């Protein structure tokens, strides 16, 4: 599933995500099994651990929605035989949602901060040959004795501290292509996504120094989190022409007070969420003490979008960028 602020709010047929209309890999002819095994074994480094594959995975198990757009882009959702967590339908088109529905769900139980609750035993009972995503109970350490490869989106690895870029999305697509024996599909998808990103940014107006903040609020008066320069929010805002008011913070996500937000006073605010209606998410910020003094609130320049449209780095971040650009077409 997605991974909001860490310990804080932190397909038989080849199908394509509606949000990823730029993906050119869909409909590509599949290699034969003999051809797809030709380049194996392959080893990829992930979260500081080498993961070896002796053949293309055939019994993948999904623990996070963050991997879905990568699988979708290279036509590998048919290699997933079980899933756990939550997979919001708004991320995908009808075909992709139908494919996800066909994948048996082990559990959708998450805790109050959005983290999946599942045991190692439940996962291993499915005999996976690949696990996509880490949890507290299912990760390379807990599965080390089983030799089952485990891959996480690099930005969500424990201790990850590298400022992300859109190039990270392209690199991760190539990694998925290597793992699943779909390098050609991955290369075509990268070329298409680069073109889509260029098309979006070419339509961004000169913002003349306009500022923005990306926040993860907690409805009902809980903690508000902001995203710094170790999050995909930073390059996404830059591509949309905005200056991230928290760009000076070398963290992915961190708590902020209403006073800190007022001091930064961004011209626009982007709110991320995993569930709940957008109005409820917006009220979580507009009801903060002193929120009426925020320029973004006064001028009604608040945009709400689902978490994976910004975090972590994935093809969905390109779609999320387009949503931000469209939400603020004239802000300067």
Give an account of the 3D structure:
The structure is a single chain. The protein is globular. The chain folds into 2 domains: 180 residues, Rossmann fold; 122 residues, Nitrogenase molybdenum iron protein domain (Rossmann fold, 3-Layer(aba) Sandwich). Strand 7 and strand 8 form a beta hairpin. Strands 7, 8, 9, 10, 11 and 12 form a 6-stranded mixed beta sheet that branches. It has a 4-stranded parallel beta sheet with strand order 4-3-5-6, with no helix packed on it. Strands 1-2 form a two-stranded antiparallel ribbon. About 9% of the residues have low confidence. 47% of the residues are buried. Helix content is 30%, strand content 15%. It is built from 11 helices and 12 strands. By secondary structure, it is of the alpha/beta class.
């Amino acid at each position: 599933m997605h991974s909001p602020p860490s310990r804080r709010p932190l397909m038989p047929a080849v199908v394509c995500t509606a949000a990823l209309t730029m993906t050119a890999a869909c409909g590509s002819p599949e290699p034969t099994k003999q051809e797809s095994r030709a380049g194996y074994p392959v080893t990829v480094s992930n979260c500081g651990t080498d993961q070896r594959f002796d053949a293309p995975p055939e019994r993948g198990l999904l623990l996070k929605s963050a991997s879905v757009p990568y699988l979708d882009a290279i036509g590998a959702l048919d290699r997933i035989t079980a899933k756990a967590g939550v997979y919001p339908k708004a991320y995908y088109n009808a075909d992709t949602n139908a494919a996800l529905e066909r994948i048996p769900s082990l559990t959708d139980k998450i805790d109050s901060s959005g983290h999946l609750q599942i045991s190692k035993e439940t996962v291993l009972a499915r005999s996976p040959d690949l696990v996509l995503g880490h949890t507290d109970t299912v990760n390379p350490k807990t599965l080390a004795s089983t030799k089952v490869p485990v891959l996480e989106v690099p930005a969500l690895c424990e201790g990850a501290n590298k400022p992300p870029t859109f190039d990270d999305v392209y690199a991760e697509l190539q990694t998925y292509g290597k793992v699943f024996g779909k390098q050609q599909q991955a290369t075509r998808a990268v070329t298409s996504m680069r073109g889509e990103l260029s098309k979006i940014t070419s339509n961004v107006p000169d913002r003349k120094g306009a500022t923005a903040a990306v926040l993860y609020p907690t409805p009902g008066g809980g903690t508000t989190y902001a995203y710094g320069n170790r999050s995909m929010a930073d390059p996404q805002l830059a591509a949309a022409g905005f200056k991230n008011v928290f760009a000076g913070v070398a963290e992915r996500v961190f708590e902020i007070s209403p006073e800190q937000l007022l001091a930064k006073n961004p011209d626009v605010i982007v709110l991320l969420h995993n569930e709940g209606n957008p109005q409820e998410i917006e009220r979580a910020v507009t009801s903060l003490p002193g929120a009426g003094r925020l320029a973004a609130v006064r001028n009604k320049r608040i945009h709400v979008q689902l978490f994976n449209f910004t975090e972590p780095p994935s093809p969905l971040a390109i779609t999320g960028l387009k949503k931000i650009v469209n939400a603020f077409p004239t802000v300067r």
